[in-house]
Amino acid sequence: DKNLLNQDVSNITMSPFTIVFKRAGLAFAASAMNAVILTAVISAANSGLYASTRMLYSQAREGYAWRIFGYVNRRGIPIYALLGTMVVSLAAYATQFIGPKAYNYLIGASGLCGFIAWLGIAISHYRFRKAFLKQGHKLSELKYHAIGFPFGPVFALALCIVVICGQNIDAFVKMDWQNILITYMGIPLFLILFFYYKIRYKTHLIPLDKVDLSRRTKGESYEPEDD
User: Fold this and answer.
1) How far apart are the C-alpha atoms of 187 and 106, rounded to whole Å?
2) What is the 3-state secondary structure (H, E, C) of 147-176?
3) Cβ–Cβ contacts within 10 Å for residue 126, how many?
């Protein structure tokens, strides 16, 4: 199908699911699939906007972002963090009008961020459980126990590494440096930010017996309830 095989990423007219139903003579199903896809895209955008807003708000409260983003209105909404996130989102969306290459670079920079984040989550979970026991606590103190520990975080860590490395093997085979840069540019970006933070704040790996297992914000602290 010409729509399925369209190589111009800026001119995709139909999804594969829609094409299948249309070819099968199920026009209503094709329209319903379009509605499902549109709803999923809007839902993903809404979820991303919510999460990004709360992350920016948390960073401001902990002193890692401008204090204005930590403001909450009387309805409990971090309004300035929300507006700031929307401005950046709209700016990213507007790059498609500059040209497909600019938009592709942004997609490439953010594409691996989820897997890199899960790398950090897997490592944090593994070290949390080890530190929890190292400091004399018992698993019975936790309301929720991750099943199959340590297989879960170790498997997630290994799988994320495999996925990150295998994002675009074909580009390495063909030595297509432009595609390599677009696909993997999130990795050097992460490393730059990571080492900048370590050098500026002189951070180091904390021994398990000295890990702070409480979460403190504005002088408050509470013990972890979940594993």
Assistant:
1) 13
2) CCCCHHHHHHHHHHHHHHHCCCHHHHHCCC
3) 18
Where in the chain are the domains? Answer: 1-97, 99-227
Per-residue tokens: 196: 């900048």
Cβ atoms of residues 82 and 53 within 8 Å? yes
pTM of the full predicted structure? 0.66
With CA atoms as reference, report the closest residue to 181 among 168, 193, 162, 194: 168
In what helix (H) or strand (E) does residue 16 lie, and over which residues does it extend? Answer: helix 16-23
**Tokens of residue 108, six digits:** 């490439």
Closest Cα partner for 209 from 135, 144, 122, 143? 135
82-108 pLDDT, tens digit per residue, is 999 999 989 888 887 877 677 777 777
